[in-house]
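Q: Predict the assembly, please.
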Amino acid sequence: MNKKINKPSEKDFNSPYEFGFETDIETVFAPKGLNEDVVRFISDKKEEPKWLLDWRLDSYNRWLKMKEPDWSSLRYPKIDYQDAYYFSAPKEIEKPKSLDEVDPKLIETYNKLGIPLKEQEWLAGVAVDAVFDSVSLGTTFKEKLKEDGVIFCSFSEAVKEHPEIIKKYLGTVVPNSDNFFATLNSAVFSDGSFVYIPPGVTCPMELSTYFRINAAGTGQFERTLLIADEDSYVSYLEGCTAPMRDEHQLHAAVVELVALKGAEIKYSTVQNWYPGDEKGKGGVYNFVTKRGDCRGDNSKISWTQVETGSAITWKYPSCILKGDNSSGEFHSIAISNNYQQVDSGTKMLHLGKNTKSRIISKGVSSGSSSNTYRGQVNIHPKSENSRNFTQCDSLLLTGNCSATTIPYVESKNKTSTIEHEATSSKISEDQLFYCLQRGLDEEEAIALIVNGFCKEVLQKLPMEFAVEAQKLLEISLEGSVG
Amino acid sequence: MSGNLLEINDLHVNAGDKEILKGLNLSIPFNEIHAIMGPNGSGKSVLSNVLSGNEDYKVTSGQIIFKNKNITELKPNEISNLGLFMAFQYPLEIPGVTIMNFLKTIHEANRRANGLEVLGPSDFLKYVREKAEILGINDEVLKRQLNVGFSGGEKKRNETLQLLVLNPVLTILDETDSGLDVDALDIVSDGIVGMKNEENSFLVITHYRKLLDKLSPSKVHILVDGRIVESGGPDLADKIENKGFESFN
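A: Predicted assembly structure:
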């Protein structure tokens, strides 16, 4: 069916609340490019309060004055920010009509992961209605959380239902002046997740974005805000092991975590966006700002990530250790194959007394990829008796790839200590032959060795994620040797 | 076709440009233990590697027939899954992979390759414990990372455990006795003797006779400069003990 899309005229842009876009829900979208009117349009479509619109506009105006960072080791063609859709790209664009039109390699991967057909269609972005029956699942889930007073909903819903919490915390961890990509996100964020755990509550289940599928298609400028009130606990799972096909090349998400006194947040991510093909064509550019604030004493935030997707990954989940005795952890596995480029790591900012941080990073590179760990540990003058331990290990599978470790460390307090260990190794021919002699084929052998290498981090993942993640490592490295 | 488990016919093998094996012939029937002895550099280790399909070495002519199948061009894993096991002289470390996990992975690969059903977790655990007990390996050891932090002798014991778990038809012991103390030698050789039956055979590569005394091979072959220069009974090992390899040159 060929739907006609009314392009907005110049005049439409000048009227603040009437945009004259086609009202049919299926085809509502903002035109290509970014300007104040597009920001207003987004806010209007979401029926946001004025303070949020003002915040978006403030962000937009800050963004205009900012420069895209160029300090990373990533190399990519210049992004034309005016050549992108910032709200609901027209549905006719690039949507495959059936799985037959989707990259057969992707389908092969789905089959290997054992993903049911219906779900495959949803993941691949096939243009069919209600491909995934989540209603019953979603409802029972919500009821259970409600009993404990846990709020878990989309960001847009939270703006309507809990504006006071959003207003209190939004931008307090990642301010809208933070960095180019975070500021862009603050201006145009589409949707995301909101979580609030009341004081003293241990969230009765792992919260997973996978179940909150109404967030599908909002991956481009996702915004997540998670608040763990005093003495509460939550484990949050983001992403899923199945690779998501996405028509947007540019992704710039923001995640803000706040842990109040005695609270603990465990945030696990499996990032598996489309990495591009074997020749380095296509793939998602992923510029993510994730930061957790251990605002209260004795609070704890731990990040665990398995990064296998995206053509470009720019991501440094960080912790601000403000409360005394607070602790931050970062456990990461970053796999790069073919022409993928990863520049990822963490920042640990020790402000409070007796704060602790622990960084375990495992980089596995193959093909012609490049994989950089970039981390910063900073202990402030008043942060007494604080400790950091960092361990960065790289494993190289082929001669063409590269692995780099760039740690920045600074301690301004004599009673505090920083420890850093780094190793770099190659899978040896002998190791491979040994496994082959025992009957494993080359891919099984590599998977086994890589899983062993990553074990310390895999163990940090929640059980149900860990098994899938292992399988994912295997698939991500397919065809990497031989 | 012959009833031999292994037949090597006029095998020539290069390492790089250098010819190492220069027309080697060897037959091993079922239910026998054969030993190959030879001085350093005679090609003993190259032979075991070539039999296992190691692509570092190039077969320039000749054939390796295993279970009546020409395996000369097969990949190491294909040869392994036909039932050929090589106990390494220097077993490799695989950090982060427990012995138990490794055993499970290789056992499953082997079963699958042979169209057999994979054992369930509890059956497999029982099976491994049975084998581990023969070698005096306890559950705590099974949880350790494969060969990481093990002594030379302990690594050989781990090799023997893999051998018992996979239960191959042909086992090549590549200097398994080197680096073993007397107790470890007893444990390993008892394990091998216990595994021996009418349907399998062993090829023991060594330059000591200690292990041969334990295993009492049916045949001893002398490998010098890439060829078998003499074959005989166990008394051949005595001859070497007394006169050295020089007499065969």
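Residues 264 and 300 of chain A are 5 Å apart (CA to CA). Chain A is about 25% helix and 30% strand.
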